[in-house]
Structures are given as structure tokens and as C-alpha cells.
Predict the 3D structure of the following.
Amino acid sequence: MVVVIHGAASKRAGIMARKILIVDDDPIFCDIVTLQLRKRHPDVEFATASNGIEAIRIINMVGSDIAVIVTDLHMPEF
């Protein structure tokens, strides 16, 4: 698992862009991470992707709004 925070550490993890992308091929893991993060950050929007290709598609659509990416490094597709 890798967590990427961009934008001056996303203003010291204040997460100014207010979007977190969770990428994992296990939908249950995505749900659990989203639920846990939503409890701590109720004003943040979440997006999930089941593989790298889908993640890139989401990043291309909302790119600069994403402050944090949580990703699995071992997925069957990219």
C-alpha cells in the first residue's frame, strides 16, 4: 500500500483539494478504507478505482482536485 500526498504535503494533510482516491482491486478493502477515512474527514470526497487504468481515468477527469491517493501496489491490471 502506498499513500501519496501532493501539494506541499497537501497543506500539511489539511487536504485542501478535498478529494481522496483509493485504488485497490479488492472492493471490500476500498469500502473499509473509505468508511474509516470518512469518519475522520466527513467533508472530503472519495473516489475509488479497481485498477491503475481506472485510477488514471479518474485522475485525468479530476486531477488537481485529488489531494491523496491510497493505492495497492499489487493488482492484476496495471
Q: What stands out?
A: DSSP finds three helices and four strands in the chain. The chain has a mean pLDDT of 80. Strands lie at 2-5, 19-23, 45-49, 68-71.
